[in-house]
Amino acid sequence: MIKVGDSLPDVTLSEYSEVEGNGCSIGPNPVPVAKSLAGKTIALFAVPGAFTPTCSAKHVPGYVEHHAAFKAAGVDEIWCLAVNDPFVMGAWARDQKTNGKVRMLADGSAEFAKATGLTLDLTARGLGLRSNRYSMLIKDGKVQTLNIEAPGKFEVSDAATLLAQVKG
């Protein structure tokens, strides 16, 4: 399992992007993790799935709400990861009004989740292999802080907790 001090895996995530106007998309677009993290400070949080109750009601809204505070504390970008396809993540981004605040990134085949060892097997509930719920602060591709939730919990990966750690 990934730990503080480790580099994030060099896998490629996907991001669905839209163009104003005709509704024509320019995505999904590849997001190579190592290249996208180079020289940046990223607040990353992962959720078991898009449109799920806790993720939609608490997790994403907290990061959207604290976007300006993260930027003021030196965070370049906020990333949300889920084992969903980029089309679902794009629809969830619209629903949660994350544009310009949180990048909604798809780990469609759970490559990132597997490579970090942060998987959650929900096969018995019909959801397959998912990502565990967690947050981390990343500087230039290396994990600085890692907050992993216990199964079914939402206590340490919220925006307020990670923001306090960034400021600390």
UniProtKB/TrEMBL annotation:
Protein name according to UniProt: Glutathione-dependent peroxiredoxin
Transmembrane annotation, as ranges: none
Domain Thioredoxin: 2-168
Cellular component terms per the entry's GO annotation: cytoplasm
Gene3D superfamilies in the cross-refs: Glutaredoxin
Key word DNA-binding present: no
EC code: 1.11.1.27
Catalysed reactions, as listed in the record: a hydroperoxide + 2 glutathione = an alcohol + glutathione disulfide + H2O
Active site annotation, chain numbering: 55
InterPro entries referenced in this protein's UniProt entry, alphabetically: PRX5-like (IPR037944), Redoxin (IPR013740), Thioredoxin-like_sf (IPR036249), Thioredoxin_domain (IPR013766)
